[in-house]
Amino acid sequence: MWRYYSPLRLWRVFALLLTLFLLIKRRDRFFLFRPLTPQKLIETITKLGTSFVKLAQVLATRSDFFPPDYLNALKTLHDELPPMTNDAMQRVFQKAFVQNPFLDFENEAIASASIGQVHKATLQDGSVVAVKLRREGVEMRVRADIHILVLFNALFRPLFSHYTKHSVEAVIAEFSDMILKEVSLDQERSNLEKFSIQYADQPIRFPKAYAKYSGDDALVMSYEEGFRFDDKAAIEAHSIKIEPLIEILVNFYTEQMLVQGFFHADPHPGNLLIAPDGKLVLLDFGMLKRIPNETRIAIIELIKNAHDRNFEGYVRACKKLGIVVYEAPANEVAEFAEQMFEIFENDSLNSTTMQDLAFDLLGKTRNLPFKLPQEAIYILRASAIIEGLGTTYIENFNGIKDILPILQKNIPRALGLQDGILGTLIKELKMVPTDLMAFRSLIRRANEGELAVELSKAQLASLQKSLHDSLLPLITGFILLFGALFALFLDRENTLIATLLFAIGTARLLFR
């Protein structure tokens, strides 16, 4: 256990997090420390292993945090590691399977990532399966990494602004919750079964889990043939048209994120196969997320307002999502949104030029109060991956333009109007008596002075920040004044110290 807290490992984590701090704050140095170069940053993350590779992949979606050269380097990180030694693999195998259920088991892994590795095997009944074995000690290492992250974040926390502080903490909180679930292969089996049932009507193939052979250390599922979604040579060799598959993928993710609110958050090319028959196959169900209903509706409003170029509505939707803080100046944020959309709607620009212009604009607007709510992290990650897959094959692929027509067809379902407009009207009419009773109750409570007002999370956060900003100078000022009196009380010769404390305290109260 203690090897995960070795001085060298702690130093690497410190160097990594200090680099992230300097990049986010746009600083060249912190005392004698300079940020790691993009290449050195990637080497450090790779040496730290599982947790930090996963964390870096999440951070790679934050274009507002990093300069282009670092962002591009982070995007090259792949969740691939050499397989376990044969001895370690055998120990995991024996722990997972008290009795060997396989007729044949290939010792050489066909894929190896940070959490586990996959072997091809054959069950006693002749079924060909993929067996995912969890890496030895990975859960203990992940828990140690989370403790280290929380410790160092507490050290760096005072150096961040209010909004950046909450964005960083949201990333760490969401990442910690997700990776602990991801290292449980029993959780992944459960995810796969739920996902397969919920999306059984979709034109996507999912593996079949064998629950009786699976547990926390091993997941046994049907073996799916296919090649990676980004393997252009294989796609051409099989004469497969990619555009219909991209359309199916966009449709599928619109259904997941905006209609059902339950989505696969890691659709990178290694988890998306194209079978020889041309069907899409989705793998790896360790990273599934549910979207709260209010967040899902706010995203729908965001996309629609973006398409309609209604920038005030766009800003309102951003505030509902928590991307823009409640007290943000609406005009400035709307102007920023308009400039950003002018860049991405310009069909004469290639993707590189678009990215450069967008980064330049982000650099000029760093003082705008943007933040990252916890539930938005994996939504942004999955969206960015899908966008990247689209641009691999279609020049200037625009996710918003492609999603909106699909969304418009499904808005009634997305908003819960499953029975169409007429059915919904009938349901609403049936609710009229209940609504009238609720209205009468509201009037009665108002007359009796018992009416309560419920604030949104964004409004509460804004209020808390305002109180904090108002009270902090008062509290520190009075502490300094009492400190001055206490210094004199201890010894009347402490006049200089008392005068200094009194002057600072008075200045703090007067110029807050």
What does this structure look like?
- The structure is a single chain.
- The chain has 512 residues and is an alpha+beta fold.
- The protein folds into four domains: 2-78 and 141-181, no CATH class; 82-136 and 185-223, Phosphorylase Kinase, domain 1, CATH 3.30.200; 228-418, no CATH class; 457-510.
- 59% of the residues lie in helices and 8% in strands.
- The strands form three sheets. Strands 1, 2, 3, 4 and 6 form a five-stranded antiparallel sheet that branches.
- β9 (272-274) and β10 (280-282) form a beta hairpin.
- It starts with 6 loop residues before the first helix and ends with a helix.
List segments where confidence is low: pLDDT < 50 over at least 5 consecutive residues: none
So what's the overall shape?
globular
Report Rg: 27 Å
Strand content: 5-15%
| Number of DSSP E strands | 11
- Mean of pLDDT: 79
Q: Helix fraction? A: 55-70%
Structural class: alpha+beta
- The domain count comes to 4
Query: How far do the termini sit from each other?
Result: 48 Å
- Outline the biggest β-sheet: 5 strands, antiparallel
Helix segment count? 20
Itemize the secondary structure elements and their pairings.
Elements lengths: L6 H19 L12 H11 L1 H10 L8 H8 L10 H11 L5 E4 L5 E2 L3 E8 L4 E7 L3 H19 L5 H21 L2 H14 L5 E2 L12 E5 L4 E2 L3 H6 L4 H19 L1 E3 L7 E3 L5 E3 L5 E3 L2 H15 L3 H11 L8 H15 L6 H14 L12 H17 L5 H16 L5 H11 L1 H16 L9 H34 L4 H16 L2
Parallel strand pairs: 5-10
Antiparallel strand pairs: 1-3, 2-3, 3-4, 4-6, 7-9, 8-11, 9-10
